[in-house]
Write a structure and sequence with these properties.
single chain; UDP-galactose 4-epimerase, domain 1; Rossmann fold; alpha/beta; 3-stranded mixed sheet
Length: 291
C-alpha cells in the first residue's frame, strides 16, 4: 500500500498505522512524487506497483491557495486526475483525501454535512479539492472501476509534527505579554480531527474492503475554534486568559466556511468510528505541552 505525502502530518500517521497492522507500506515522499510534475504519477505507479494508493499529498495552505488559485488547481486537482488515470489504468485502488471546505458552511439546522449533500465550495482551496474529487471520479468511471475509488473528506486536522492549530494557539499565547488575553474566533464551527485517529480509520476502511464512494471521517462531535483553544490551553497554559472574537475580526486571505461540520454517515454503517474530538485533544496534549 503506497502513501503519497509520506512526510506530511497524515502521511506519517498513515505509515505508523500501516506498520501497526503489519501491512507493507511504500512511502512516496516529494522527491518520489512531486505534485508539480505532470509525469510523476505514471512513474511511481508503474515503478512501485502497489495494490492501493492513499493520496494524502496536497497543498493544504488554505490562504496560499487563495493567493495562487492556479497553483492550487495544479496541485489539488490536476495532479489528482493524473494519479487517478494511472491507478485506474493499472487496476490500483485509490483513496483520495479531501476536505470539509467543499461545502459552503451555510447550514442552519445544526447538522453536519453528510456524504450525500451537494458540495458548493466558497474559496479556491475548496474549489481545487472538489475539482480533484471529480477528476478522480471521471478517471475511474471511464475505466469501469468506480468501486475502486474512495474519497475521504476530513476537517480541521491536527497532530504531530506540529504547526497545526493547537500548536499555533500555544505559540500565539506564549508571544503575548503577561495578562493580555489571546483572541480566538468563536463563530467558526467544525469537526476537529486527530491525524492518528484518522489514519487508523482509513487503514481499517481500506483493509476491510470498504465499498467505493465518498466517506466523511472526523472525530466525533463539533467545536468552535475557541472550544479547541480552550481545551489545549487548559492542558498546557491554564493561566492564559482568552477573549472570544468574530470571524470578521480575524483578517486572512481565504474565507473558510462558517459551519464546517461533517457527519460520518457511511463509515458508521461499516463500523468505522473515531472517538470524540475532546478525547483526542487530551491524548495529544502531553506531547503538545512538552514541545
Amino acid at each position: 500500500m503506497a502513501v503519497t505525502g509520506a512526510n506530511g502530518r497524515l502521511g506519517r500517521a498513515l505509515l505508523d498505522a500501516l506498520g501497526r497492522e503489519e501491512i507493507e507500506a511504500i512511502p512516496w515522499y516529494r522527491a518520489d512524487y512531486d505534485l508539480d510534475d505532470p509525469g510523476a504519477a505514471a512513474r511511481v505507479v508503474e515503478g512501485g506497483r502497489p495494490d492501493t494508493v492513499i493520496h494524502s499529498a496536497a497543498w493544504t495552505d488554505v490562504d496560499g491557495c487563495a493567493r495562487d488559485p492556479t497553483r492550487a488547481m495544479r496541485r489539488n486537482a490536476e495532479a489528482v486526475g493524473e494519479l487517478a488515470d494511472s491507478c485506474a489504468g493499472k487496476g490500483v485502488r485509490l483513496v483520495v483525501m479531501s476536505t470539509n471546505e467543499v461545502f459552503d458552511g451555510q447550514r442552519t439546522d445544526g447538522l453536519g454535512y453528510a456524504e450525500s449533500d451537494p458540495p458548493h465550495p466558497i474559496n479556491p482551496y475548496g474549489e481545487s479539492k472538489l475539482a480533484g474529487e471529480r477528476m478522480a471520479q471521471d478517471a475511474f468511471d471511464r475505466a469501469g472501476r468506480s468501486d475502486d475509488l474512495l474519497i475521504v473528506r476530513t476537517a480541521w486536522l491536527f497532530g504531530p509534527p506540529g504547526n497545526d492549530f493547537p500548536s499555533k494557539i500555544l505559540k500565539a499565547a506564549d508571544a503575548l505579554p503577561q495578562g493580555e488575553p489571546l483572541n480566538v474566533v468563536a463563530d467558526e464551527v467544525g469537526s476537529p480531527t486527530y491525524s492518528v485517529d484518522l489514519a487508523r480509520a482509513i487503514v481499517q476502511l481500506v483493509h476491510e474492503g470498504g465499498p467505493g464512494g465518498v466517506y466523511h471521517l472526523v472525530n466525533e462531535g463539533q467545536a468552535t475554534r475557541l472550544d479547541v483553544a480552550l481545551r489545549v490551553l487548559g492542558h498546557c497554559r491554564p493561566a492564559r486568559d482568552v477573549a472570544a472574537i468574530s470571524r470578521t475580526q480575524f483578517s486572512r486571505a481565504s474565507s473558510p466556511p462558517a459551519w464546517a461540520v461533517l457527519r460520518s454517515s457511511r463509515p458508521a454503517a461499516v463500523e468505522v468510528t473515531l472517538r470524540p474530538w475532546s478525547e483526542a485533544i487530551d491524548a495529544y496534549a502531553p506531547s503538545l505541552c512538552a514541545a
